[in-house]
Automatic annotation (TrEMBL):
Name of this protein: SDR family NAD(P)-dependent oxidoreductase
Keywords, ordered alphabetically: Oxidoreductase
Pfam families for the chain: adh_short
Family indicated by similarity: Belongs to the short-chain dehydrogenases/reductases (SDR) family.
Keyword Oxidoreductase in record: yes
Highest taxon in the source lineage: Bacteria
PROSITE patterns with a match to the protein in the record: ADH_SHORT (PS00061)
Annotated organism of origin: Kribbella hippodromi
Length: 239
């Protein structure tokens, strides 16, 4: 699984390990994934998913048989309108949320076919509905959704399942801080007044559920929001 060093990725690694999988924890921050791998009796592989060399090394570490690929690495950078877009940030978002998903999946597909595996892509409700200030991230997550749907059509005759999990508001380690370049006050404002946003564990529980369904059962797409978020733009906030 990619993006295993924190948040949804780290939580999913723990849930998959509890479900009986040997988890290969891949991420850039080696110290974090080594600690996680030790905790869950997994393996740590340092991997920047935007690096072809790192993806090749991950593929070599995985070997010839893979049961579950969780494409979790991703991220949002900035919240400016399109008219003020930081196009370098847009390129970074497309690279990590779309190109990397395609690259990792392409590289590991032979092992997934051999293992009759499951591909899980961590999408977002941003891949379904646009919102002001989210143009770059919205475009990237729509792109990830398109990759998932295309893969499912192209692999219809292969023993591989393909699922997108599309969370709404999740208060997880680092996501909002990364988006706002470490500005804690802006990150906190995203969740202000929302009594119970989703947590990384909520999403990890769904990851494990998807991975452990019978082999003939494919959950195409799971959209999950906190009860307080009726839609992308409609969130119940309390003082």
């Amino acid at each position: 699984m990619t993006g295993a060093s924190s948040g949804i990725g780290a939580a999913s690694a723990r849930y998959l390990a509890r479900a009986g999988f040997e988890v290969i924890c891949a991420a850039r921050r080696l110290d974090r994934i080594e600690a996680l791998a030790k905790e869950i009796d997994g393996r740590a592989v340092q991997c920047d998913v935007t690096s072809a060399e790192d993806v090749a090394a991950l593929t070599a570490a995985v070997g010839d048989n893979l049961q579950v690929l969780l494409n979790n690495a991703g991220g949002a950078f900035g919240l400016e309108p399109v008219a003020e877009a930081d196009l370098d940030a847009w390129r970074r978002m497309y690279e990590v949320n779309v190109i990397a998903v395609a690259a990792v999946t392409k590289s590991l597909l032979p092992a997934l076919i051999s293992g009759q595996g499951t591909i899980i892509v961590m999408g977002s409700t941003a891949g379904q509905v646009a919102y002001e200030g989210g143009g770059g991230y919205v475009a990237a997550k729509h792109g990830a959704k398109a990759v998932v749907d295309t893969l499912r059509l192209e692999l219809y005759d292969q023993p591989v399942r393909i699922t997108e999990i599309a969370p709404g508001m999740v208060r997880s380690e680092g996501f909002a801080l990364t988006r706002f370049n470490g500005d804690q006050s802006k990150a906190d404002a995203v969740y202000a007044g929302v009594r119970e946003p989703l947590t990384a564990d909520d999403i990890a529980d769904i990851v494990a559920y998807v991975a452990t369904r019978p082999a003939h059962v494919n959950l195409d797409r799971i959209t999950v929001r906190p009860r307080a978020q009726a839609a992308q733009h409609k969130v119940h906030r309390q003082p």
